[in-house]
Amino acid sequence: MDRLVFTSSHGNHYQFACCSVQEPAIQSKSKKEKTEAEGGSSKAEENINDESCGQIGQGVGAAGISINRDEYLQAYRDLMFDRNQAQIKNNLLHRRLAEYYKKRKLEHVLKPLENVPHLEEKYQQKLLTYQELKEKEEIEIADIKSKLDVVQVQYADKLEHVENRFNALQNHERNTGIGLIYSKKGKPIADKTVERLLTLQRRKCEQASALCLRYIRARNAVNELDSIVRKLEMIAPGLNVAQYEQLYIDKQNYLSKIEEREDELIKNRVNCTEHNQMLAHIREKMHHTEEVIDFAECDFGDAEIELIRAREELGEIKSKRDHLRWSLEAERMKAGLLTRKDLLRDFQDATDEVVKLKEKKKQLESQINETTKLVREARRRMQMNQTINAESNNDSQMLL
């Protein structure tokens, strides 16, 4: 494995551990040049040693310092060649690493690290904490070992005491058992029988102690399993698995209710869209009816103006008629006796004038009739507009 180091244009340092890969031609050239360089360096060392050996004890003052520039130039060229080869190798490996990281989508490895001093401080802090934990662990291990030694000593003492007592008990039983006589047979009990009974007793005691130890281990294992099961049942302080299952069931029920409410919401949204469409259609109709009402109001205003104008003309005509009546009455009063020629002439003239005035009256009456017809037509149109307005208002109220 080689560790590659390169510096970017921003002054950031990168390190990579990679295998030394090189082309076979480059390797052969580097090996040949290295062997030549080693041979040249060994020859130069031998020459220097020979010269030094020859110079010792011989004319030190007369001999001058001889420097072989060719050897140094050759060594410099060899080093430069090695440097170039290492640079080519470094660039090649960098390129391969970049391609590898790009294929693996690990381009963040090539990016420079940020906040390096901060990371170093964090690393140092973690090392200090790790050292403290390790020291605490060593202290705890030493304490546990000391306690274990004490417990082992106590166990050994108690075991020795129990074995001594058990041996003393068996010795006492052996002493008491030897020389006893069977009550039924009347023969003494043999020593082998006593020993056999004592060994059987020892074996049964060992089996009982092993069973007690096995029972204690099983009891401890059961207690541990019970504690583990309790811990598994306790998800959090105050929460059990049964409560979690009940909460899960409640969640499923609420989710089903939420789905039902969502269905209802979808239906309500569909109804709202339909009602909005209906309201938009009604608004369009209202705009159209408003436009019709505006046109009708304009026509109604024109009819009112025509009516006012006709009323003014009618008043003028009535005033002219009254003036003519008054003039006729005045002329009649002025006529006097009809025997007088002048009066007759005046009467003839008056009759002629009356005829003319009648014709004029007829003309005025025809004009009055025309004006009355116009007024009646205007009134009729006004009544029609009023009825249309009332009907439109009723329709709008019914729609609302």
From TrEMBL:
Region (Disordered): 27-52
Entry keyword annotation includes Magnesium: no
Subcellular location: Cell projection, Cilium
Taxonomy, superkingdom: Eukaryota
Database matches in Pfam families: CCDC113_CCDC96_CC (PF13870)
Chief localization: other
UniProt keyword annotations, A-Z: Cell projection, Coiled coil
A GO cellular-component term linked to this record: ciliary basal body
UniProt-listed GO biological process terms: cilium assembly
Record-annotated CCDC113/CCDC96 coiled-coil domain positions: 203-375
Coiled coil: 116-154, 340-381
Protein's name according to its UniProt entry: CCDC113/CCDC96 coiled-coil domain-containing protein
Organism of derivation: Euphydryas editha (Edith's checkerspot)
